[in-house]
Design a protein that fits this description.
This protein is of the alpha+beta class. The protein contains 1 helix and 3 strands; from the N terminus they run E-E-E-H.
């Protein structure tokens, strides 16, 4: 389970950054008070939404009702996205390094 993180300093929104958004798509009952929160990832262009992906996270019950479960789902989403961003940045760095080597080799062969 992800640790709750209230610091949004490094998650500030920038206008025009992206046409991708996320919102709650539903909360499924898994029994014994457990649930699964579904998030839809979508693009929104000219007012039309187009689904891109759905992410699902299991969330345990608490003494804070459905709103608490949704909040814990968002904790999981944020932790998951941070992990994915780290992995994407690492992969991008490797591919850029390879692309630079490729471009240098191609320039030498001319």
């Amino acid at each position: 389970m992800a640790k709750q993180d209230e610091d949004l300093g490094d998650l500030s929104l920038r206008n025009g950054l992206s046409d991708y958004f996320v919102d709650v798509a539903g909360l499924d009952n898994l029994g014994h008070g457990n649930g699964a929160i579904r998030f839809k990832m979508f693009t929104s262009r000219e007012g039309a939404e187009q689904a891109v992906a759905t992410l699902v996270f299991a969330v345990p019950p608490g003494n804070d009702g459905m709103e608490g479960m949704v909040a814990r789902g968002y904790d999981e989403l944020i932790a998951g996205l941070r992990q994915m961003l780290y992995q994407a940045a690492t992969a991008r760095k490797q591919y850029r390094r390879r692309a630079d080597l490729y471009a240098a080799a191609k320039a030498r062969s001319r």
